Batch of 3 targets.
Target 1
Amino acid sequence: MGIRLGDNQYGKAEVRLVHIDRDTDVHQIKDVNVTSQLRGDLETVHTVGDNSTCLPTDTQKNTVYAKAREWGGVGAIEDFALRLARHFVDEHDYVHGARQEVQEYSWDRIATSGGPHDHAFSRRGAETRTTVVQKDGDREWVVSGFEGLTVLKSTGSEFHGYPKTKYTTLAETTDRILATDVTARWRYVGTEHDFDKAYASIRALCLEAFAETHSLALQQTLYEMGRAVLEAHPEVAEIRFSMPNNHHFLVDLSPFDLENPGEVFFAADRPYGKIEATVERDDAPDAGDAWRSVPGFV
């Protein structure tokens, strides 16, 4: 029986970087979390402890900080991740591939009586922008998205017509609260895009479709969100969603001689339905290694 080394990669995880653009009195803040991982000539590193082709993870961390300064900031996280991947692969002949994952945390200017403050900010909830860039030699893939986008509709949602078994207790409804925390990832065709503009548009399209779709199931809403994105963005090959159904149950107030005409609900955090699907073009180019090690979408 032979033993050999399988697929592997290594790097520095969760490098927290905050960049402040001070070019004017109105400061710009970029708050990101970078995970850098490399692939290459690493056989002897594992088998005999020869580190001659092992770029230290500490060097990867320092590179993230240094390049943010050298490149004049972060910019679109997709562009930053691509430049990092190209640096590691193109500048080190023993590095054949790179995976750069970047999460961006949004900050808003604090509103004052004089308007948005020049240099005071408040963090925008749990929503996070994400990207994972893969580089293998000359081939490059970009998968971007967001997570933690919490949305709710207080009406305009139904659920009925489903199979019934002896274990079914759920009552059919033609009026319910629909709530979810949206995680979305989409794969770009190519790498030359205005990523900031595309991100803003895709996020807005997802929100609009969620709001405007009269939902007969969360699956239907998910599909309509994906369809809206693909129809508007030919540079997107596919979009994948993971959306828990955050249940809201009508509270029985009859023991207190009170009616409850759809006003008082119990918000349950678990268990929850978990809806996942991909909406894709039937002529989309092959994904290659685009989804390799994308969190939640392996």
Target 2
Amino acid sequence: MIDIPLSALEVAMVQTGTRAVETLRDTAAFAQELERLGYHRIWYAEHHHSPAIGAFPPVVLTAHAAASTSAIRLGSGGVLAPNHAPLTLAEQFGTLAALHPDRVDLGIGRGPGTFDEATARALRRGAGPTTDEEYQADVAAILSFLVDEVALGPLPEPWLLASSTAGAALAARLGLPVALAHHIRPDNTRAALEGYRAAFAPSRWCERPRVLLCVEVVCAETEEEAAWRIGPMDVVKAGLLKGLSEIAFPTPAEAAAHPFTAEERQALAGFRAQQAVGTPETVVRRLAQLVAETGADELMLTTPVHALRDRVRSYELLMKYAGATTAP
């Protein structure tokens, strides 16, 4: 049993041979299904110039899903501060929170959302990479604008995304709940959590340390089927290990035929051991272990399975076996 809320991170993978618009059309149906299943929140990630992930702005997807659901929390996981003016983000998410009270989250991250330098510069209107000081100032400005300039009524719930000790330290200093990207850099999780909890300063946003742990999860009736479903993401990860960024998201059949090297298989196995892939029993056991190890207050699952029915089925199986609560 998992006695903390379960949520979802939607990265909108675009499978080879399909169009991005088809993935986009699935977003409302996905949100409706997860609301029906009792999931606590869905966040949308910001990506740019990737053949595998649709460049769908989180604020737009949040608005679209909120209009077709009634209870599930929705928001960004995250919007990337270097790509946006702080006042713009405050206005966008402040407006969403006013339209959908107590349902909107503003998860803020630092990365550019692309591996392409030209795209990153275009997003920044020609500016170079953001420094630590600039990022910290942007986050502080967003929070200030939410309160002092936008002030439309109900505020979005702010979160800081982190995959390192530095990001977790900023969340602690600002008194924000932290969303840890265990699905990206699991080796950083323990140190980031320890630093966050030790340095946390209460604020108007959060009275105590609050941790959301994002984990890659694929749940299926058999171990073999789960491995089949996660295969396309293994191909993408193997490409990233080689420094390739222009990687399409293959079909499961294409992934099954992919010639992984021995080194790639070893690296993928090591990463998967820190996530949760397999039957419901395997996944629940692994997630319960992560909760025990980290003391997480909430789990956010990212399930990089393209076909909507298979992705929903993974969430359905997990909720059925986990016995999770739906409120923090």
Target 3
Amino acid sequence: MRTSLQQRLRAWIAAPAYPWATGGALTAGSVAELLAFPGSSTTTVGVLVSSASLMWRRSFPPVAMLTLAAGLIGFAGDVSLYVSIMTSGLIGCYTLGRNRVLHPAITVAGGALGALCVNLVHINTWAGMNLPVPALWEHDSLSLFAESFLLTVVIFGAVMMGDAVRSREETRNERNLAQVQLIAMERHQAAEAERAAIARELHDIVSHSVSMIAVQAESATYTTPGLTPETRDGFQQIAGTARSSMAELRRLLGVLRTPQHPGDAALTAPQPTLDHLADLVEQHRAVSGEAELRVTGARVSLPAVWELSAYRITQEALTNARKHAPGARTVVEIDYGANRLLTLRIHDDGPGPGSGPGSGAGHGLTGMRERAALVGGRLTAGAGPDGGFLVEAELPWESK
């Protein structure tokens, strides 16, 4: 209920008609006050101008300087302080601080100077009324300036209140803008991460399948007896088309790929698991020579991210072996360590690093390292101790 009333009040204050309604009401009150307590012509003009000028305070905030000046002049014309002058003066000072027409220090200094002038006019009026007014150089003369001091304090308070409201609103607007920018940045980063995940999955899945097509088509020309020249050329065209598709895929991945940060595990879809490694090795054996899977330790059911990362690392290592060391003997070793460390070793007896075309380029090794880092592990790739190429990954794990 309280919040609803506050919202309605804020909406009413923010309405375009608010300054006209309040300014008009204050002017009508000023007229009624002048009719009840007539003053001098200077006071009458000052009261009316000070009240009526507030109707333009939102469309033209500097008019508040006229409001304050007219109020001080009207007060100087009569020693009686009209309620309308006091109200319009406070609103004028608040408007000057709220819109920062001038620096608050300048506004307060100008108001203090105006208050001093009003006080001097009143001192002169008191002397003309035969009131006991001490000379300005006498000891008790400081008490004569209590009026200017009080007016300065009131002006200072109203200006500072307006400036504080302005500062709070600017801070709120900056905070809202920062929040909008943060949300936009998070959405942009989420889109980039999603693109990176798509690129990684495309590379792991499509490149594996297409490379198998190329290897099978090329090896068929040598392992299948009695092929006609036309059939042999057809197999070679299939292999060439597969390689062209791989080149197009790499260009596509170059567009999609963006830097990937550790901790984006939620973006990885849990598809294959370590139970599918035997099928993966069998596929590799069918198209690229001898391959062996060695498992050490008891099978442990790992979280989906660990299972998928280990599978994809093995898949990519086998794909690279077919690409750069066709026909080489490949051994895949997986160790479910007792110290909660899953170790993968994929080793071939081929010619080693830098042997094939495009070796070391592309996103294969980078993707494997990212997958290892995704689960807090590490991956090394390079020449094996007995020659060939070795990929070794250590993935710390926690059981489900």
